[in-house]
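Appendix B, record 7
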Amino acid sequence: MFRNVFALKSLERYFLILAAGVALPVSMLTVIVVQQNWRSLASTDEAMSGFVVVRRTLEAMEAVSAERGPMNAALGADLPVPDEMLRALDEARQRTNARIADLLALYRAPLNPDGAAEFTNIQRIRQALLDARAGADLAIAAPRATVSGLNLWNVVGDMVALVPQLRAAMSDGIGRIARNQGEDFDLLMLALLAGELREQAGLLGSAFAPALSKRRMLTTGDQLEIEHVLGRIHELRALIRTNIAGMPRHARSHAYLDLQQQYFGAGLSYLESVREEAERGISGAPVTMYELGRNYVPTMASIVRFRDVMLDEVEQCIGESRAAAIRVLLTTLAAAAMLTAALIVGLTLFRRRVIRPFVRATDIIGAIARGGEAPRIPTDKYRGEVNGMFKALSVLNDNATALRKLELERDRLIRDLAVMAETDFLTGLLNRRAFEKRLQATLARVRGSDEGLAFILFDIDHFKAINDTHGHATGDEALKAVAELCRRIFRQSDIVARVGGEEFAVLCHGCDPRRAHGIAQRMRKAIAETLITVSDGSRFSMTASFGVTYARGTDAAALARLSRRADELLYEAKLNGRNRVELESAA
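Structure tokens (predicted):
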């Protein structure tokens, strides 16, 4: 009797250990899966918060850029400035203030308790905006004879300097989207490129301000600034075209076609006509900054529409991802609840169908051993009821495996995007952004040392004529051929990049002026001797113009103007007949 009771207690103890052994891993696996799905939901929330920051910042950047239009018109108007212009300027400033206020609201506690640093940074930018406006108001009210073109450009420059500060302020938001919603980064990249295009488009209009406001012809400095901004605009156009090429639906969208027709078509054509008129002299038929803004600014609306369409797409994708994450989380919780219920039912049935029959069998055996009447022997058949639980766990494990695979794919995509961001898609050389980053790093490294640094800037002469005559495909082949010559002629230690449509830049370490000039001459001759084959079998040659400058690390002033002087020398090479190398006289 005592032996039977002891056996019963031991069996119950073993059952509890078994139940705990089954319940513990199931609970841990359920918690792990729920945590993973919760992190997925939190990831989409973080991506959405980063997106809101990016969108509000882009809208603030656009407002600051748009404010320069009526400001330029007021600067170029005769005194007294018409009330209509002043009202337009005040309305633009009110729009900018509203955008900055929206941006500040994102970082203000309690909505964002950790945003104190960002909040302070935006306040600093707002104060810089107020200071820039104060300077503009002084210039607007001053007698026109006392305001020089340089004064006007300084006033415009104070406003222009605000946009890079705002752009830097949204880097954290971009990073949050890239980390948590990497599959939609291509759409975000298009929106960012459109935002930068809007700024450069506004800057291109502002480049005419000194000449048109003072009723004079464009100077060489004005021309250089216009060409510099145009080069950046063409580069952005190429980047947008490249990124959108893999999105057929967006490539055929109304917003993209409208961008091509309105801004790249009508807008740039209008500015080219204004430029031609300003080059001839505008005394006979003056074009004021107010008229330029009235005709040019509406074409930039297509850029904003395209940007907003891309942002709407990103927001929709993040929203869909969040909804999907909520569905998965709820499904997981429901599955966990069902699994817990199934475990309880299974253990209960196990106790009822295994433990209790076993105890009953013990009683029967004891009764038989005592020689008494044996209880009724059950004829029920017992089978394993926990099989379904393991099948459910297998399904949940498959879900976790799929989630890990998605995370690996996201990391790979981010790495690929990082490489693409620094590589020119056509030539395989560095792009302008990567080159400028390496240029700044090199200048910082050699500053104060005796190391020599040569900067070679060149572009293909009459490249537009090549495209117009032989087609853009042939023009692309010409660019590829120049890139191949760069790899063959320049050293592996030299930094070579395509910094514009047909413009290339080279940074040579440890190179004296004579050697830099010789390398540039070899490159020039190699380009002139290269024949490009057209699709119809004909062949043509091309030439290139070079600007070469040199500086040592001990010459801080020469280092500071290295790239700017190379750009001026390239322009001189163009003016002096092209197909030549202009070397800095000081070198």
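Remarks on this record: The first strand starts at residue 452 and ends at 460. Residues 41 and 323 are 9 Å apart (CA to CA).
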